[in-house]
Amino acid sequence: MDRIYLDNNATTVVDPKVKQAMEPFWLQRYGNPNSLHRFGTETHPEMGVALDRLYAGIGAADADDVIVNGCATEGNNTILKAAWVDGILEGKKSRIVSTAVEHPSVAHTLDWLEQRGVEVIRLQPNHEGLITPEALAEGFDADKTALVSIMWANNETGIINPVKELAEFCREKGVPFHTDAVQAVGKVPVNLQEVGADYLTFSAHKFHGPKGAGGLFVRSGCSFTPLLHGGEQMGGLRAGTVNVPFFVGMGLAMELAVDSLHYAQTTMATLRNRLEDAILALPDTMVLGKREHRTPNTILASFKGIEGEAFLWDLNQAGVAASTGSACSSESLEADATLRTMVSDADLAHTAVRFSLSRFTTEEEIERVISVVEGTVKRLRAISSTY
Amino acid sequence: MAKGDLVGGSLWDNYSRIVADRMNDPRHLGEISEEEAQELGADLVVADHGAESCGDAVRLYWAVSKDDGRIKKATFRSFGCGTAIASSDMMAELCIGKTVDEAVAITNLDVEQALRDDPDTPAVPPQKMHCSVMAYDVIKAAAATYKGVDVGTLEDAEMVCECARVTLSTVKEVIRLNDLKTVEEITSYTKAGAFCKSCVRPGGHETRKYYLEDILAETRAQMERENAANVDVPFAELGNFKKFKAIERVLDAEVRPALHQDGGDVDVDDFRMDGDVPVVTISYKGACLGCMSATVGTLGFIENVLKDKLDSSFKVEVG
Lengths: 387, 319
Description:
The complex is a heterodimer.
Chain A: E1 4-5, H1 16-22, H2 24-27, H3 38-41, H4 44-58, E2 65-69, H5 72-88, E3 95-99, H6 104-115, E4 119-123, H7 133-137, E5 145-149, H8 163-173, E6 177-180, E7 199-203, E8 214-218, H9 244-259, H10 261-281, E9 285-287, E10 298-303, H11 308-317, E11 320-321, H12 337-342, H13 346-351, E12 352-356, H14 363-383
Parallel strand pairs in A: 1-11, 3-4, 3-5, 5-6, 6-7
Antiparallel strand pairs in A: 2-8, 7-8, 9-10, 10-12
Chain B: H1 17-24, H2 34-39, E1 42-51, E2 56-65, E3 71-79, H3 82-95, H4 100-104, H5 108-114, H6 129-147, E4 159-161, E5 166-167, H7 168-178, H8 183-190, H9 212-229, H10 240-261, E6 264-274, E7 277-286, H11 297-309, E8 315-318
Parallel strand pairs in B: 7-8
Antiparallel strand pairs in B: 1-2, 2-3, 4-5, 6-7
Helix pairs in contact in B: 1-3, 3-5, 3-6, 5-6, 7-9, 9-10, 10-11
């Protein structure tokens, strides 16, 4: 049985071209780029190309820094903890403003900072799931706020926040703005010439690059404190021997993702819509967030009467991979924060299943998933005591 | 944390084959109609437990024979994850052939045991144990319906941890007998808190009446008070630090509870040995501050308690 992977918001397959581009850096050009000898320096040309691709991919200027690191979790930790160390421990500021629907790499870091005395404001999304500039403006205190951190697109729902307006607001108030763009890169245009974010984080494995590589954009002139100290790598901004194959792979993955944006927003979106329409054609189902507010690959659907983990179980039996934020599926038995926040109806938090496509998803796969979903809904609703 | 905890996502790997099989193909799924119960010469009992908003819900159907009071047929429907469905199915199976009173004796531990592939390997990972608890709860609900009594009358004892079926008195007993100081120790002695962890502290999967952290704190405080009442080593032979601790213990156990009742309190400001005479300097707080009797009656009371419990020559001064 061919397996079908619709969990691309969790991770993606490495593009074969990316794998090929990384190949020479394992056995031939394995030098440390910070070495003076030829083994080291022969890695430089392709690292330069990779950097060009990363800068171009997100619209960074040469004067800005795009620090290549281990993952977006590292980037998010770096920025949040820098705000604490520089702005808050120094006594200049006391507060970080974020949202109630951030990824755990932001949410749990903020919890940790809160325990250490940082005042954390968690904005609630509006009825459409959006974090609006109006919500940010309400009670905003520029004198107290060290940083605003708001995700570009949500991992569970795919809902895209108005980051351009949010960044503009922060710029006017003179407060630094960070956005976790992990779910945006490769799905919607990410152009830092147009969006005035001061810091931005992304992760290669969400756009068909390798796991274990990420990027952190720091706009020219914005303050920065490294998280990792040590050697002179990344201009001293992020110590640790550079992972050359991943660096090169992420660069190409970025270029391919940006080149595929049109495809993602047309063909992939059409496939997504096909699946979404089929789900909505079933009785007592719903999808969170308006289609025009969402990344073109994501569906968070609720199926009344079916618990999310049971749904995944049946999908998995049929060779289909999806995801659920349902409490029953987690080690901690706690529902995903986005679900808890966004879903006013408690039932939905237990019945939500996420399908996320990639540019490699085919029409045949979507047709088969539709029939698997229909069969699963039928079987599990026959078992259900609440349907 | 250790090697075994570092790679996550193994939830489904820890389901037994029986659990997987019962999830894929439940044997006792469905409803029993009034007509079917009539044909079986049985009374129909239908009971619900849980709700979709809680993440788990199960409905149990029993056909209880009018002749011998035995459950002739048991079926279920369930909203829940795979382990909830498998547990419900096994629970229904275990009911069949039993009287209602016998069925009430089935616990979640029996259900989990029956789902094991081999007797020594748990059928589900720890955090999934609570799914089998629901199976037990719905049996109680069905029995209460059948008997026409309130479900509370079928509860045997104050249950702290439903997953491992550990009662309040058991938890208190192991803390005392083994001088336990942490929740982790309670868990390793009793298994309470080893599964869904709801009973460890508030904020877990479900709201509980008792939490292990609170029980531990209260029991330890109670033990401290009792210890203070019988100090083995004579006060005069204790070092200064232990002397100070002994005074605090006696104040905690004998004096402060009485003062708290009137909204007052007392602090120890200083302690010294005046030759062989222990002298403690106190200051009053709260309602004691303006209280007429504080300088006379209360002071005498404190002094007498310390004389009685620690050293007959004790002197108490107000700082």
